[in-house]
Design brief:
The chain is mainly alpha-helical and about 100 residues long. Helix content is about 60%, strand content about 5%. It is built from three helices and two strands; from the N terminus they run αββαα. The protein has helices at about 5-10, 25-35, 45-90; strands at about 10-15, 20. A two-stranded antiparallel sheet has the order 1-2. It is rod-shaped and about 95 Å long.
Length: about 100
């Protein structure tokens, strides 16, 4: 199970001037020490979050562009495919003298 201690330990609140205060870092240190080898630490500061966000946005942009290409291709071809299917479902009469 993975649990982010920061969710539990970094209590935030606004001071009288509206600035955000973060809870006591020594509490996080105490918990990490108690967990010992069970804890895996990771850097997740502002710069780390920004970099990760930018990486995800770049991947999503690539996926979106691929999806837009697929939608455009379907729109360009769907008319022909629908026409073929509609005509194939309608009963047709052959001219006199022709058989299927």
């Amino acid at each position: 199970m993975i649990v982010s201690l920061s969710l539990f330990l970094q209590m935030t609140r606004k001071d009288k001037d509206g600035r955000v205060e973060v809870g006591p870092p020594e509490l996080l240190d105490q918990r990490l020490e108690a967990l010992g080898d069970l804890a895996i630490t990771a850097h997740w500061g502002y710069n780390d979050r920004q970099r990760t966000f930018q990486e995800w946005m770049a991947q999503l942009k690539t996926v979106r562009l691929g999806a837009e290409d697929m939608v455009r291709e379907v729109r360009e071809r769907v008319g022909y495919q629908l026409t073929r299917r509609i005509l194939a479902q309608q009963p047709s009469t052959l001219p006199p003298g022709y058989t299927m």
